[in-house]
Amino acid sequence: MSEPILEINHLTTSFRIKDEHYAAVDDVSLTVNKNELLAIVGESGCGKSALAFSIMRLHNRAKIEGEIKFKGQNITEFSTSQLNALRGKDMGMIFQDPLTALNPLMMIGDQIGEILLIHNKTLSANKRKGRVIELLNKVGIPRAEHVYNQFPHELSGGMRQRVVIAMAIANNPELLIADEPTTALDVTIQSQILDLMKELKEESHAGVILITHDLGVVAEMADRVAVMYAGQIVEIADVYTLFENPLHPYTRSLLNSVPTANEEQSKLHVIQGVVPSLQNLPREGCRFSARIPWISESAHEKNPVLHEVSPGHFVRCTCYKDFHFPDGKKEDKHHVIS
Amino acid sequence: GGDKETSKESDGADKKTEEKEDGLFSVDDFKQVKTNEGEAIEGGNLNFGLVSDTAFEGTLNWNFYSGDPDAQILTWFDEGLLTWDENYVYTNDGAATYEPQEAVSEAVLATLPADQATEVAENGVTIKFQIKDNVNWHDGEPVTAEDWAFAHEVIANKDYDGPRYGSDFTNIVGAEAYHNGEADKISGIEVLDDKTLQITYIQSTPSLVTGSIWSYPLAKHIFGDMAVADISSSPEVREKPIGFGPFIVDSITPGEAVVLKKNPDYWRGEPKLDSVTIKVINPNVVVQSLEKGEVDLISSFNVDQYPDNADMANVEYLGKVDRAYTYIGFKLGTWDKEAGVVKPNPDAKMADVNLRKAMWHAVDNDAVGNEFYHGLRWNATTLVPPSHPEFHDDTNPGLTYDPEKAKQLLDEAGYKDVDGDGVREDKNGEPLVINFASMSGGDTAEPLAQYYIQSWAAVGLKVELLDGRLQEFNSFYERVGQNGDDDPAIDIYQGAWGVGIDVDPRGLYGRDAIYNFSRYASDKNDELMAKGVSKEAFDVEYRKEVYKEWQQFMVDEVPVFPTLYRSIIVPVNNRVLNYSIEEGWANLHELALTQEEALKAE
Amino acid sequence: MWKFTLRRIVTMIPQVLLLSIIVFVLAKMMPGDALTGMVDPNVDPNTIAEKREALGLNDPWYEQYTRWLGGVFQGDLGQSIHFKMPVSELVWQRIVNSFWLSAFTLVLTYLIAIPLGITSGRYNDSWADRLITGYTYVGFAMPIFIFALVMLWVFGFYLDLFPTGGSIQPGIEPGTFEYIMSKIYHMLLPALSMALITTVSTVQYLRSEIVDTKQKDFILTARAKGASETRVYNRHILRNSLLPIAAFLGYEITGLIGGSIFIENIFSYPGMGQLFLSSISLRDYSVVTSLVLLFGMLTIIGGLLSDIILSLVDPRIRIK
Amino acid sequence: MSFLEVNDLKVHFPIRGGFFGGTQGYVKAVDGVSFSIEKGKTYGLVGESGSGKTTTGRAIIGLNKITSGKVLFDGQEINDLHRASKDIRRDIQMIFQDPYSSLNPKKRVSDIIAEPLRNYEKLTKGEEQKRVQELIELVGLSPESSVKYPHEFSGGQRQRIGIARAIALKPKLIIADEPVSALDVSVQAQVLNFMQDIQKELGLTYLFISHDLGVIKHMCDEIGIMYKGRYVESGTKEDIFNNPQHIYTKRLVAAIPDINPRNRSQHLQFRQEVKKEYEQSFNKYFDSEGLAYQLQPVSNTHLVALPEKG
Amino acid sequence: METSKIELSNVEGDKNLNATKSPSGWKIIGREIVRDKLALFSLILLTVIIILVYGVSLFLNQEEIVTVDLFSIHEKPSETHILGTDYGGRDVFGQLIIGTRNSLSIGILVTVMTGVIGIIFGLVAGYFGGTIDNILMRILDFFMVLPFLMIVIVFVAIVPKYSILSFSLIMTAFLWMGIARLIRSKALQEKELDYVQASKTLGTSNLKIMFTQVLPNLSSLIIVTMTLNLAANIGLESGLSFLGFGFPESTPSLGTLVSYARNPQTLEFRWWVWVPASVLILVLMLSINNVGQALKRATDARQRRG
Ligand SMILES: Nc1ncnc2c1ncn2[C@@H]1O[C@H](COP(=O)(O)OP(=O)(O)OP(=O)(O)O)[C@@H](O)[C@H]1O
Ligand SMILES: Nc1ncnc2c1ncn2[C@@H]1O[C@H](COP(=O)(O)OP(=O)(O)OP(=O)(O)O)[C@@H](O)[C@H]1O
Ligand SMILES: [Mg+2]
Ligand SMILES: [Mg+2]
């Protein structure tokens, strides 16, 4: 059976804005198993990054409530030094923008070496360098010896992202969090990076959280998918179920709005309105209701909760039952095999 | 200063000068000799503050220096061979004695063409100088007649780069020929033996023995082999200067400080002090330095600061009348560069003597002296300051403050306010604006100038500051005509002269004096001034009469009018003994201290 | 980099040349000349006229300029008319003083700026930060001359803790320990007065640099690596924020030049600033010209130094 | 006669250096590109970052100086747009990538939209107002939008404002440089739909620049693929997606993520095969400098950059 | 990254959006100043000072104030002379008011003139770039090399007669470079933004783009810089006057009043001559700086307080 590496229970992360707290992540519960890739999708501003940062406890000013259990330990109660022992060793993180994620004034070798040094003070400098070169080779960087002494700005975007990945996997973490690791990259490079991540995951059996807004990437990579909207998970299911039987109106709308190279659609679906900003989140009711105004109010729950519609498939709010596209347009189900 | 009103004899016990009830002081209340209190200690170091806001130049040789700071330093380690008395007449108390000869030296006359020879024989004089035997340079070499002659030759040399060459030298037989390269020696100077020198002067005048003899030797054994042009920048002038004075230069921090140690071989006797430290101090910190006892003596003290600090406990103030006066001049002509003479212009704006008189009457210099200077400067009456008591005519009141008189004079002269705006027009009814040039610098310059302008306005004269502001030092002198290019925009100007130790005013008011900025000249003036330096003038009474007449003549003509006489105030730390500011005092070797540390004010 | 430096120096030449012409002409336009100050009834006016002619002060400016420039090319900045010594020698005497004063000020500037900047940047919005920011505000607004006057008054006179003028106590053997201590003692008050004011911009810069760097993504990366807070600060934030400060060094030099005029004037410290002011009033052209030129060159060199340091400490900036 | 014809277009940027800013070399951003667009069609320009897509578009509209080559619009040469007639300049308009920076934040929407009108048409205040309102309605914004400032709109709405501005002069050709890549998927859909709508309505021709093959496929009739300033392949949508000839095209197409998770292992395999092929046959498809060869026709719509036979 | 950052600032949220890029910049500035009590206080103080100084000086007669009165030299503050008199018997309070007015006027004049020159120079250089930029930058480099204080001192020694205007002109001649450089670098960035490109494609002329499109977007930056410059310029003017290279005493200035303190007598015994002026300089500079810093924070989202 799958062994959970991370369990999140009722996690709420709030930011203080003008003396009031606003929850960017609202009562999120999920589990990541060993050797499993969980994708988190959603539009910009849905709280995906906030969730990832909460897991790593990287926000220094956010209020975190709930439970984050990493290998059975509740790390919300950890001290900074306890956390530091975890970060970079048992948990690795890959950031979205590879240029800004690297210290511009430090050589690549030193930056990767640093993570080794922090968690293993006894490693000799020579061995460390050997290990760094090994890592560089592993993430597919040619001429690793040379790159070792280069500065971030001397590398291309794809190379930099590989360096960031090398850093994240340096200590063979059991949980890897990747926040939009390929958004800044060209398609060809994106596919290479994704393939690399997949490879690495299979090798290490780590649990992976992949944050993205690209449904194509999800379809290529994920084992399970959580769809986030306005700080909440609105649907969670394994990847096949989600793509073949999406239930939540938001999931369905998203899937319908993507032009894909494989599909021909004359008209794309448009989701009305925008993701509300943190201070304007509806305090109660279904948060998505504002963007599907043609669905009657009564279809929504007062306090929407996740319903398990089939084993492992959860959907928030009952409105999915009544949802239809406004123009009566037929819904494409993405199960056509090309 | 006999023209000052009351003067209270200060009794020896009370060192502090009493402030009068009206907040005024008088220079007569100051002593010139430091009161000695306490026992002298052996040796000790005296700190001398050289008050200057710039660094001293460091041309430390009497034959080359040009700034007062350097002279202040020089005084400590070198001196003239001749000293003078309170009337500025050379005495025989110095390192050399002098004796005018009955007749002009035959040997010198022999070098001259016949006509000149008779002239010199008639008007000239030969003076014989004898240097005392124990007068030695700091390096032990004796000061010789050769050295003295050498000084003359160097200064008269055409490569000489210092400022000394002038009438004192051209008055020596053969000096001009030597200067022009026509002779390889100054024929009028004869070295009779190691210690005896004889100089023949073309003109014998009373001025000769009141400061017109060059009395500073130049060590030939050191400078003899140098090119004349190189001497002033040689290390022997700048870094390790030599003299024969009471102290020897030990070290110099360029521009900042000089440390001197005593010269045990000093001809007057071994100095009592071990050493003297001369340090440049900024005028702004003088008082604090005195209070803290950082300096025992200072080179100059701004009288403005006296009233606030009169009760400083650790110093005694000495004071005397300064050889200087402030004046206001009227531009009455221009300078003829070609001829080198003043060219009076009878049509000048200020040509009317009544206008000038009225302007003198219009200003209340007593008030200025009292209010700005608390009595330490006072109303000036004539162009011979009371620092020369023999010649200053204290019966001459000058023109007194009398605005009504001023108005009357103006009315009579035709300067009337025709258009009724309160401002007088000139004789032709044209607007009259008088441009006034005054120098900046000095704390009171600006209000003083403003005060004069206001005073003149009070009698209806419109006077404006040239360019609306005070002239900076350099531009003032440039425009007022120190090169002979007088700025026509200037009508009147305010200046000050420090006068020489000789009373002869030709350098400032002579027809051929470029410093005669008012460009005034008249036959009567020429005549009077010539009389003052004639052979007859060796008779002091005669000379007094001449200058008395000249002083009155200047009051009548008013090419310039003096505004203020000045005093010198010198604070001295109480631990200093045997100090004096009397004219001709030269006993630095007698200076002593009562304790190692200077006294501080509480 | 040598090529870059060389090229910068070559490009300096026309600038400096133009500067020299401008300064020379300006200096000549000042009324009066170095001999004006010799107005003295005891000095024969003819002597002055002769000297004026001999010094070539009556020649047209361009002749004087070419003569002067010719000298400069032979390393001869001319002769100070007032001080009667070669300008180079004169300036050298003063430059040494100014150099030590500036160097000392710089050291103090950084000694003050770095701890304050770091404290204020690291703990921004804390009480310490507010205090430091308050200080920088006041320091920023305080004209240096007022501050220096007050410092002189309080520490020099009132408390009598420091000398109030000069660069050295007279009579000390150069080179001895005592000599050096005396020099430092004399520099302390002027240097401190200047440093306390000039440092504020560095404190402010350092603070905002740290506050900025703290929010950079690579700091998150460092935290995600498990780096301790100390490590994050020392290795990442401070290093990245301090390096640009190092590059300020060159510009600081430029700033010190301006300040030195006030400081040396108020503390009667015999340096170049004071020499400049007195040379202006003495109309000692060769000195004025040389000093302005020298300061101009220092400005350029300061800029160059900053660029070079920046390129050394920041691998992203490359100079060819 | 095509509507827009680009012939051997080259845009080289000098690399400046030295004190006097002397030219020390060139960046060949666009290096011999030729294509033509039919009236009313959408032509897609794809390629990875830095391949010269934007530069091509900007050169056509006159924002970049053309080094050599010819651009013919409606049969007229417009190499130097500044000298080209005013009519032509107003016939070509542009939509920018970044809806945030392409609108002047200090101007009201009405001023932004009216800017081209003020430059080209002498309208009275009232007429102008009317036109602006029409345009605002046309792009589906509420009438009161005209007095608002750009920051009060979402990305998609801003892009519509940009479009309204571009169509204000009733242009014939619109160059759209990555009009949706800055937008979220949902908003992207909105803009793409709208662009298609007005194309039909106004009979517009698009030069559509994007690096997203999905979007390109959705929008375009014909496609050109760029690589390092040159074309590697061009043809109809079908030619490119169903029958890619050049290894680079194949690689691009293979890199598009498949939205169907069931395909992923096959897709991965396919991708790896293509990658292998790419590595092996790189020299076959590119010259010694790693640049593409001249285009060779493989069918009458389909051109591929292959070395000349022989 | 670009994308997500900007997306965050959707509809209402201009939190992360650079305020210089939004018309409500003014509102933010206002808000920021009101929020920052110190800045608000400074602004009010400054306004009061300015109104007082310019207002009161209307009723003062400069001639009369600088009239020397021999019989009231160095009077202590009293009813007739609120702040006593100086060594010319002139009323210090009157001089303070007029001096502040003069110093402020010069400061403002210099700031405005340097601003105008700097803006035009910087805009032209930055907007056109290329050769024009190159040439202009070489000119600017040259001015940067000039040791400002020294050159101005030499200049002041030459100019025979100066007024507020000519003095300001001298200062301006050597002070415009800072703002020119700033504007240039911003203009270089700004012109690359699409809205400028868009205007070009829409047929707007360069001049019009420069002044009606680019310039307004640099306005908050300009305001901030000019505010801070104003303080610096007032400081410079008083510094020059202090050194004796400013105005003659008949045209009072704050620096001149402070410079009286160089007379140790005044420094020690007559605080009323120089302390008020010193304090006023400090207060002026502090308040202007406070306002400037608040403006800076307002335009720099990262530093904004709320
Ligand atoms: N430090 C913070 N302080 C205040 N609000 C924040 C902070 N970080 C994020 N937010 C807010 O929290 C919400 C969620 O932000 P988050 O960055 O998690 O979104 P996201 O889904 O990652 O979006 P993107 O795809 O753009 O990265 C947004 O409304 C954002 O404005
Ligand atoms: N003004 C310019 N000066 C110099 N080089 C330039 C300039 N503009 C573009 N380039 C260079 O030309 C090349 C092509 O750039 P271009 O912007 O056209 O690419 P692109 O395909 O649009 O890329 P992207 O997808 O990143 O927008 C790049 O290498 C770029 O660095
Ligand atoms: Mg995110
Ligand atoms: Mg592009």
TrEMBL record, chain A:
Q: Which UniProt keywords apply?
A: ATP-binding, Cell membrane, Membrane, Nucleotide-binding, Transport
Q: Which terms in the GO cellular component ontology are assigned? A: plasma membrane
Alphabetically, which GO biological process terms does the record hold?
A: peptide transport
Task: Output the SMART domains linked to this UniProt entry.
Answer: AAA
Q: List, alphabetically, the InterPro entries matched.
A: AAA+_ATPase (IPR003593), ABC_Ni/Peptide_Import (IPR050388), ABC_transporter-like_ATP-bd (IPR003439), ABC_transporter-like_CS (IPR017871), Oligopep_ABC_C (IPR013563), P-loop_NTPase (IPR027417)
Domain ABC transporter: residue ranges: 6-255
Indicate what this protein is called per its UniProt record.
ABC transporter ATP-binding protein
Species of the source: Robertmurraya kyonggiensis
UniProtKB/TrEMBL annotation, chain C:
What kind of membrane protein is this, topologically? Answer: Multi-pass membrane protein
Q: Which InterPro entries match?
A: BPD_transp_1_N (IPR045621), MetI-like (IPR000515), MetI-like_sf (IPR035906)
Listed Gene3D superfamilies: MetI-like (1.10.3720.10)
User: GO biological process: what's one of them?
Assistant: transmembrane transport
| Tagged with keyword Thylakoid | no
Q: Which residues form the ABC transmembrane type-1 domain?
A: 95-306
Q: In terms of one coarse class, where is the protein primarily found?
A: membrane
The portions of this protein that span the membrane are: 99-119, 131-155, 184-206, 241-267, 287-313
Q: Which GO terms describe its cellular component?
A: plasma membrane
Compartments where located = Cell membrane
- Output this protein's name: ABC transporter permease
From TrEMBL, chain D:
* SUPFAM superfamilies reported in the protein's UniProt record: P-loop containing nucleoside triphosphate hydrolases
Q: Tell me the Gene Ontology biological-process terms attached to this UniProt entry.
A: peptide transport; transmembrane transport
Name the SMART domains for this protein.
AAA
Query: Sorted alphabetically, which keywords does the UniProt record give?
Result: ATP-binding, Nucleotide-binding, Transport
Key word Nucleotide-binding present: yes
- Which molecular function GO terms apply here? ATP binding; ATP hydrolysis activity
Q: Which Gene3D superfamilies match?
A: P-loop containing nucleotide triphosphate hydrolases (3.40.50.300)
Domain ABC transporter residues, every copy: 4-253
Family recorded in the similarity comment: Belongs to the ABC transporter superfamily.
Please state what the protein is called: ABC transporter ATP-binding protein
Native source species: Robertmurraya kyonggiensis
TrEMBL record, chain E:
Question: According to its record, what are the GO cellular component terms?
Answer: plasma membrane
Q: Where is the ABC transmembrane type-1 domain?
A: 100-292
How does it sit in the bilayer? Multi-pass membrane protein
Chief localization? membrane
Q: Which UniProt keywords apply?
A: Cell membrane, Membrane, Transmembrane, Transmembrane helix, Transport
Pfam families reported in the protein's UniProt record: BPD_transp_1
Output the InterPro entries linked to this UniProt entry: BP-dependent_transpt_permease (IPR050366), MetI-like (IPR000515), MetI-like_sf (IPR035906)
Its BP terms in the Gene Ontology are: transmembrane transport
Organism superkingdom? Bacteria
Residue spans making up a coiled coil are: none
Transmembrane regions listed in the UniProt entry:
38-60, 106-128, 140-158, 164-183, 214-236, 271-295
UniProt entry tagged with the keyword Transmembrane: yes
Record has Hydrolase as a keyword: no
Alphabetical list of SUPFAM superfamilies matching this protein: MetI-like
Name its cellular compartments: Cell membrane
Q: Which family is this protein grouped under? A: Belongs to the binding-protein-dependent transport system permease family.
Q: What is this protein called?
A: ABC transporter permease
